[in-house]
Amino acid sequence: MGISHKLLRAGNALVTLVLVIALLVAGSWAGYALWDNEQVYAAAGDLMAQMQ
User: Fold this and answer.
1) In terms of C-beta distances under 8 Å and separation of at least 24 residues, what long-range contacts does 43-51 make, across chains too?
2) CA distance 3 to 32
3) For 42, which of 1, 12, 26, 48 is 20 to 30 Å away at the CA?
4) What does the longest C-alpha to C-alpha distance in the chain come to?
């Protein structure tokens, strides 16, 4: 196994790690956005119920 093969494997591992972290961050953000939207709609529903 040459040094170029080891560099390719290390590069591949690094790219995989960066992609996994990016997907986790994106998934977390999406979950937060959905939760926040639900909170806004619930508050609007409560306000509408109070106004009626």
Assistant:
1) none
2) 43
3) 26
4) 75
